[in-house]
């Protein structure tokens, strides 16, 4: 694993940080927004017999967080292959 140039290394990390920023923003919106800020509006919707705001506060944000982890792993593997720094 080695970058061919300093510019390639900078571009790789810039895209990595950009991806992290987007995923953290989604996580923040789902966990803080759906579980706290918008809970009253979401509670008017029922999901599997539970109020949606309650569900996000108790379980939904955790499911979303785990899904974001798997998405991040896939996107980082794709990014590694694109820049030629994958482990295969």
Give structural notes.
It is elongated and about 55 Å long. The protein has helices at 6-37, 39-42, 52-83; strands at residues 46-47, 50-51. By secondary structure, it is mainly alpha-helical. Strands 1-2 form a two-stranded antiparallel sheet. It is built from 3 helices and 2 strands, in the order ααββα. A hairpin with a 2-residue loop joins strand 1 (46-47) and strand 2. 77% of the residues lie in helices and 5% in strands. The N and C termini lie close together (10 Å).
Output the strand order for the largest sheet: 1-2
SS elements, strand count: 2
Label the structural class: mainly alpha
Shape: elongated
C-alpha Rg, in Å? Answer: 18 Å
Assign a percent range to the helix content.
Answer: over 70%
> What profile does the largest beta sheet have?
2 strands, antiparallel
Distance, first to last CA: 10 Å
Strand content: under 5%
**What order do the helices and strands follow?**
HHEEH
Low-confidence stretches: none
Mean pLDDT: 91
Individual helix count: 3
Offer a concise description of the structure.
77% of the residues lie in helices and 5% in strands. It contains three helices and two strands; from the N terminus they run H-H-E-E-H. Strand 1 and strand 2 form a beta hairpin.
């Amino acid at each position: 694993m080695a970058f061919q140039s300093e510019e390639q290394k900078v571009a790789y990390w810039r895209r990595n940080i950009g991806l992290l920023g987007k995923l953290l923003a989604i996580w923040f919106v789902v966990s803080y927004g759906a579980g706290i800020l918008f809970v009253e509006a979401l509670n008017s919707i029922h999901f599997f017999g539970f109020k949606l705001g309650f569900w996000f506060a108790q379980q939904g944000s955790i499911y979303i967080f785990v899904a974001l982890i798997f998405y991040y792993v896939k996107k980082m593997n794709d990014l590694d292959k694109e820049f030629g720094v994958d482990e295969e």
